[in-house]
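Good day; I would like, with your permission, to put a structural problem before you. What I wish to show you is a protein chain and, alongside it, a tokenised description of its three-dimensional fold. Here, with my thanks, is the record as I have it:
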Amino acid sequence: MTEQTRTNLEVARQFVEGYLGHGNLSIAPQVLDNRVQVFTGLKPSGPIDGIEEYVQVFGSFREAFPQVEPLKILDIFATDERVVVRFQSVQQHTKDFFGMAATQRVITFDETHVMRLQNVKIIENIVSATNLEFEMLMAPVLTPLILR
């Protein structure tokens, strides 16, 4: 394993555990490139564009769905500039989100993030998720944003 691969794995782990897992938004500048592009259902109109927008979008999600169990990394591997992390997180819908009133439901999120790093920072993150319960919960408010 190259030193670059080891470093990229550490950055991705710090991002997933610290930023996504603990909601520590202050580490964003350490792990995310200012021009980061994130492809996720949390912004149905297109990719999240830039670090400021990512902190805003993820911060509002995290506020509405705080974690109730520690995030678990299930798989993490890398090759050159790409890192793939598969994890599971259990969160509770405690505040309104996208106009959907809080339900207090506890939801398990299963996600895979495919990240591309450049200069030791994440410049692209493609999120693939098996979050059917979340998607069904949010369908009434997200469907009109997605199916135009």
